[in-house]
Design brief:
By secondary structure, this protein is α+β, with helices and mostly antiparallel strands. Helix content is 31%, strand content 8%. It contains four helices and two strands. It has a two-stranded antiparallel ribbon with strand order 1-2. α1 runs antiparallel to α3. The longest helix is centred in the first third of the chain and has 11 residues. The chain is globular, with a radius of gyration of 12 Å. The termini are far apart. 28% of the residues are buried.
Length: 97
């Protein structure tokens, strides 16, 4: 697993793509908000939601996913510097809107 993306079933999913639909948008934001409020969906992927890299899903992660959905990049440095990030980070590529 990379903290800038998540490898599952032969596919790399970008950080913030919490529903694994290969794009980052309002559904990812809403699923993360629901999780923070205690209403986790079976579609929700915790590894993809931890944008801050602090092993917690919080409002900070929600705002980072909103930023990604709007086309900007949050600071991924904390996530990329975690001890479990043994691989080179992947390029997140263009963000779908």
């Amino acid at each position: 697993m990379w903290k800038s993306g998540y490898f599952k079933d032969g596919v790399v999913y970008a950080l913030g793509d919490v529903n694994h639909d290969r794009s980052i948008g309002i559904s990812d934001v809403m699923l993360t908000v629901d999780y923070v409020l205690g209403n986790a969906s079976p579609l929700f992927n915790v590894d993809q939601a931890d944008v801050s890299g602090d092993d917690e899903i919080t409002v900070a992660d929600v705002t980072s996913i909103v930023s990604i959905a709007l086309g900007s990049r949050p600071n991924l440095a904390p996530a990329l510097n975690r001890p479990d990030n043994q691989q080179n980070p992947i390029d997140l590529g263009p963000v779908s809107k």
